[in-house]
Amino acid sequence: MHIVYPLVVSALLFSIGIYGVLARRNAILVLMSVELMLNAVNLNLVAFDVWFADRLHSGQVFTLFIIVIAAAELGVGLAIVLAVFRNRRSVEIDRLQDLAEPPGPGEEPEPDAAQELEETRS
Amino acid sequence: MISAPTIEYLEIAPLLLVFGAAIIGVLVEAFAPRHLRSAFHIPLTLLAIAGAFVLTVLLAVDKTRTVAVMGALAIDGTTLFLWGTILVLAFISVLLMNDEGQFVAQAAAVPGSAEEQEAVLEGQAQTEVYPLALFAIGGMLIFPASNDLLMLFVALEVMSLPLYLLCGLARRRRLLSQEAAVKYFLLGAFSSGFLLYGIAMLYGYAGSLDLAKISAALGTVSGMDPLLVLGTALLGVGMLFKIGAAPFQAWKPDVYQGAPTPVTALMASGTLVAAFGALLRVFWVALGNLDWDWSPILWGVAILTMVIGVILAITQTDIKRMLAYSSIAHAGFLLTAFVATGGPEQNRVALSSILFYLAAYGVTTVGAFAVVTMVRDTGGEAGHLSRWAGLGKRSPILAGVFAFFLLAFAGIPLTSGFLGKYAVFQAAVAGGATPLVIVGVVTSAIAAFFYARVIVLMFFSEPAADGPVIAAPTVGTALVVALAATVTVVLGVLPQPMLDLAGAAARSLFVY
Fold first, then answer.
1. With an 8 Å Cβ cutoff, are B161 and A58 in contact?
2. Residues whose CB falls within 8 Å of the CB of residue B220, separated by 6 or more in sequence, listed in order
3. Does A114 contact B176 at a Cβ distance shorter than 8 Å?
């Protein structure tokens, strides 16, 4: 099989991942899109490994490392997302705007979501 | 047949010590009773870092210049210098972490809930921060030493994953802290996707992950340029994200503001040093013969980073956010020497200037964040700049030390910041990057404006009636501020020993 086919598939997969990260608002879906990007890389590495007939199989070994580290990354990511969800009842990343540039002179200041949440709770 | 790998235990002893202590820390978390944990962790962490520093010094005295662990790690002068720097910065950042009330009592509890109050009343503490910090420090040590792309990626993740968690563990302003963790995590994972795709492309180009073999392939492989160019570009995106160079700087202000201040200090100093070391090794060793291709782009990145850093810093009203933008601008100043490659002699000068700058800037940064931890309101640290008004009248010593750190950031003579800037700009001029230096000097002048604005605010405005209180510093925090101030003065007045050390570290450039 020609090397171009897996490369094109992987490029498409990577692009879908990038689109997902940029377009999705739900943190979980963004995480899934990141996983798509990593899997595109895995496909690439394995394809190159076979193409080179690499004696040390660097590409496949790298793939195994990526799988393991991606799993660890997902664990950490879900823990953070879960902590946010418990506090805010939402994982919409568009609503995480408490840390942002101060509003310019002519702009209305954004309502402080964190403050509101504290107030409703007390 | 694949022969068994050889591992040079002696050369990688500092790494083993730090990771060993981190694993012991995890075991302490698992088995020690809750009230004893921090009594174990604090000495363990500090001793491990100090021990690793001693081992690094011994390796440096021994003039170790070797490639260890089957070519995965390069232990050369640059690596040892950066290890020493990172370990010192880590030590003083951990001293800041010891301060009571920086970290959450129980991370899983919702702020204001009954669980949370119970945890606070019981005096619980999330002591996992110490092993997490040790793992992050271990990753920082491997990152600039990694001599192949697999090691580079593993080090990057070992460094970043604990930092993502540490960012979300602030005791006060928990929502901001968790928001910072989410932002850092999502953007960090996104950027490591790019880094990996770049690595895969370079592997496809060279057929090896080894930096030296990629460098060799530049001369022998032909007709595969798209892979090489794409790989270099994507790898560059991933690495530049970590140092916070524009246009990948967006995470820095948000994360630095939201994270607990000791963690911000560790990230702003240690991560920058480690990531810059790794950037140097990848671009100078593996892609060094390609500098005609990447150098113009990095010129643009350097200019953009300096300009964006200082312009946006002017508009900031939060002290940590302002320091974050100043950190972006400093990454830009460092990049001016980074692109000034040339012959071996020129590279040596540029490398030693970068090493000196990283050490000087890192220590001053931790000192500045240590001062930030001490100025407190009822709801935690007084972040807003207006709260700092008149601080010089209430607490002249603290305000004076902070003003001194800001002057060092601005690069006023007799501080370490001046000599660092002088060194990198001199190297950049010698390397033919004079236009960059002109931009650098102009942006430094603009930067001096917003540093001076804070100083004026502290000393020449009336303090507010309900102004922030100055927390009585713990021994650790006081030590950090005193040490950072001393180093900033000494490197400014008597820089020669440190410059010699950086010069000696850079003499043999990189081994590979």
1. no
2. none
3. yes
Chain B residues whose beta carbon lies within 8 Å of the beta carbon of residue A121: 112
Instruction: Say whether B153 and A84 touch across the interface (CB within 8 A).
Output: no
Residue % of chain B over a pLDDT of 90: 71
Q: Do B208 and A58 touch (CB under 8 A)?
A: yes
Distance CA B398, CA B159 (A): 32
A77 close contact with B: CB closer than 8 A = yes
Environment class of residue B225 by beta-carbon count within 10 Å: exposed (0-12), middle (13-18) or buried (19+)? exposed
- Give domain status of residue B4, yes or no: no
> Where in the sequence is the domain holding A85, given as residue range(s)?
4-97+111-121
Residue A8, in any domain of the structure: yes
The reply to whether A30 touches chain B by the CB within 8 Å rule is: yes
Distance from CA of A109 to the nearest CA of B (A): 13
Candidates B158, B274, B234, B165; CA nearest to A68 is B158
Question: Does the residue A104 lie in any domain?
Answer: no
The ipTM (two decimal places) reads: 0.91
Task: Note the pLDDT tens digit of each residue in B261-302.
Answer: 999 999 999 999 999 999 999 999 999 888 888 999 999 999
Q: The domain that contains A88 carries what CATH number?
A: 1.10.287.3510
Q: pLDDT by residue (tens digit) across B364-397?
A: 999 999 999 988 887 778 888 888 888 888 889 9
Residue A61 lies in a domain: yes
Burial class (CB within 10 angstroms; exposed 0-12, middle 13-18, buried 19+) of B133: buried
Q: Could you read off the pLDDT of B207-222 as tens digits, one per residue?
A: 999 999 999 999 888 8
Enumerate the residues of chain A whose CB falls inside 8 A of the CB of residue B201: 44
Inform me whether the pLDDT recorded for B1 exceeds 80: no
Q: Measured between CB atoms, which of B110, B193, B258 is closest to A99?
A: B258
Report pLDDT digits (tens) over A26-65. Answer: 999 999 999 999 999 999 999 999 999 888 899 999 999 9
Q: pLDDT at residue A113 above 80?
A: no
| Cα gap B137→B160, rounded to integer Å | 10
Domain for residue B355, yes or no?
yes
* Residue B418 counted as domain residue: yes
Q: What SS3 class is residue B381?
A: strand
